[in-house]
């Protein structure tokens, strides 16, 4: 892939990717703050409303490898513009949805855009900097996602509370328009077409034991937090006793913790990536177990939630960097597909975590979501240790 020669042009490229990721991150997680509102307005239960999170994640899971393959021959800038147009259309459908089913259709359409964007954006980000800064570059791109948790999701939640949840999706549409303009003006035209890929490359990637392991690590390690995070608003309101407006403030602080963790995770992953990931997952599992004991206490429960936020996205740069690293070594003709499959793995984790969270909420209660989340993350700890042994 052609390298962007100057630091300034690389910075502008990363900025455009981060803005787009901000829009995508806002729409992916906006439902977390809106679940009570959607549940009430659409006449569905909280766990059913949670499908707006899990269905979106499934859309990304399918869309990332499939549409990455179908669009591989396109110029990357043209593809970015098409992706953001699709993103805008999907969120317009969600905003205007007359029924819950149509709302889910809108979510799936915007999820398809998400899958393609994230699969190529990480490859572009890694390509515009020196090898020693690639994890940090991916972290910069993913900063858009973390900033979305700081401002996009809480602001969208606040808009929904003072008006209705549909205006929250209108807010997302406006972000999409800004992202489209940013890509048009800040992403250089001379970006190469993607590498030639086919659906056979999916099998090529999955046949490699090391890459398959990192995909499983991504799904379990990243997804475990979403057993709790998907139902964070009900947990804060029902178990800890916080009001709806207080939840908005809490989501902002939570987002700040996420942003801090993501930045720190990018720096830690630049060196011994697997060792860093091992301890990130281990600490997150411990924190999720702790939440089981503090989840009914307003003060200690909140402190535990903020600690959970620090580690929630800390693993993202390292996971995405390491799958690209392994693909370059073992499947050099399918690097974009490996990146796309890891985006799928992130969203398998989200969908699986959200589904488990809904099941646990319905049959066992909100507080037990933290136990099931911790089990998922502990599986990632074991798999990371296994991959480290293989690498040695």
UniProtKB/TrEMBL annotation:
It comes from the Bacteria. Gene3D superfamilies: MFS general substrate transporter like domains. It is a multi-pass membrane protein. It is found in: Cell membrane. It holds the Pfam family MFS_1. Keywords: Cell membrane, Membrane, Transmembrane, Transmembrane helix, Transport. InterPro entries: MFS, MFS_dom, MFS_Efflux_Transporters, MFS_trans_sf. This is Major facilitator family transporter. It comes from Listeria fleischmannii FSL S10-1203.
């Amino acid at each position: 892939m052609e390298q962007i020669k100057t630091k300034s042009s690389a910075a502008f490229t990363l900025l455009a990717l981060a803005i787009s990721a901000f829009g995508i991150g806002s729409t992916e997680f906006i439902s977390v703050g809106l679940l009570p509102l959607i549940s009430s307005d659409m006449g569905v239960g909280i766990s059913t409303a949670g499908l707006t999170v899990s269905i979106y994640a499934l859309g990304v899971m399918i869309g990332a490898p499939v549409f990455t393959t179908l669009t591989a021959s396109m110029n990357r800038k043209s593809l970015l513009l098409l992706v953001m147009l699709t993103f805008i259309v999907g969120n317009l459908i969600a905003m205007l949805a007359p029924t819950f089913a149509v709302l889910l259709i809108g979510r799936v359409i915007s999820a398809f855009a998400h899958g393609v964007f994230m699969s190529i954006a990480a490859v572009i980000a890694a390509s515009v900097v020196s090898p020693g800064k690639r994890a940090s570059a991916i972290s910069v791109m993913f900063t858009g996602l973390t900033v979305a948790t700081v401002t996009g999701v809480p602001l969208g939640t606040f808009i929904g509370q003072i008006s209705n949840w549909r205006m929250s999706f209108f807010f997302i549409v406006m972000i999409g328009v800004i992202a489209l303009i940013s890509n048009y003006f800040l992403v250089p035209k001379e970006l190469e077409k993607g590498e030639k890929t086919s659906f056979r490359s999916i099998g090529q990637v999955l046949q490699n034991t090391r890459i398959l392991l990192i995909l499983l690590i991504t799904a379990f390690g990243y997804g475990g937090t979403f057993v709790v995070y998907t139902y964070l608003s009900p947990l804060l309101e029902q178990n800890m006793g916080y009001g709806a407006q207080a939840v908005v403030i809490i989501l902002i602080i939570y987002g700040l913790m996420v942003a801090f963790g993501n930045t720190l995770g990018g720096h830690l992953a630049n060196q011994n990536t697997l060792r860093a990931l091992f301890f990130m997952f281990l600490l997150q599992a411990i924190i999720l177990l702790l939440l089981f004991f503090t989840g009914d206490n307003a003060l200690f429960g909140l402190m535990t939630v903020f600690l959970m936020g620090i580690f929630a996205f800390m693993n993202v740069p390292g996971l995405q960097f390491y799958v690209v690293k392994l693909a370059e070594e073992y499947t050099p003709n399918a690097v974009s597909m490996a990146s796309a499959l890891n985006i799928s793995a992130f969203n398998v984790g989200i969908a699986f975590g959200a589904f488990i969270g809904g099941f646990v909420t319905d049959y066992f209660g909100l507080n037990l979501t933290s136990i099931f989340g911790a089990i998922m993350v502990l599986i990632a700890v074991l798999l990371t240790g296994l991959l480290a042994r293989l690498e040695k």
